[in-house]
Amino acid sequence: MKRPKSTKAYKEALEQFGEAFLGAFEYHNEIEAAIDCCKESYQGCFRNLEAYAEDWMEQTGSLECLPEPLRRYFSYSDWGRDCLLGGDIFTYEGSEGLHVYSAN
């Protein structure tokens, strides 16, 4: 990990965003970019990718277009993994759980 230029700015961002900032900084290696990421792209902290996917689908209502009998065939864990592998999201495993960020 690149050493931050401003220790004060790093500490302030860490106080403001907590562990979410660590993941954003690890990904961007720049304090300002990590702060922007926390403000604009942070999706939350989850138990795992499956929990993230289920939450996202519920929040957006994305499965509502499918008839109820077909919804049970949808795999939240597979979809969450595909989001990660496809570059739609990135994650940071912290002591609080799995922090998820939109990569777009």
Give a short summary of the structure:
The protein has 104 residues and is an alpha+beta fold.
CATH topology of the largest domain: Arc Repressor Mutant, subunit A
Q: Roughly what is the average pLDDT, rounded to an integer?
A: 93
What is the strand content? 15-25%
- Rg from Cα: 16 Å
Q: In CATH terms, what is the architecture of the largest domain?
A: Orthogonal Bundle
The count of β-strands is 3
In DSSP terms, counting alpha (H) and pi (I) runs of 4 or more, how many helices? 6
Distance between the termini: 22 Å
Task: Report strand order across the widest sheet.
Answer: 1-3-2
**CATH C-level of the largest domain:** Mainly Alpha
> pLDDT under 50 segments (min length 5)?
none
Q: How can the largest sheet be summarized?
A: 3 strands, antiparallel
Write the H/E string, N to C.
HHHEHHHEE
How would you describe this structure in keywords?
104 residues, alpha+beta, Arc Repressor Mutant, subunit A, 2 domains, 6 helices, 3 strands, 55% helix, elongated
Strands, helices and their partners?
Elements: H1 7-17, H2 19-28, H3 31-40, E1 42-46, H4 49-60, H5 68-71, H6 76-85, E2 89-94, E3 97-102
Antiparallel strand pairs: 1-3, 2-3
Helix pairs in contact: 1-2, 2-3, 4-6
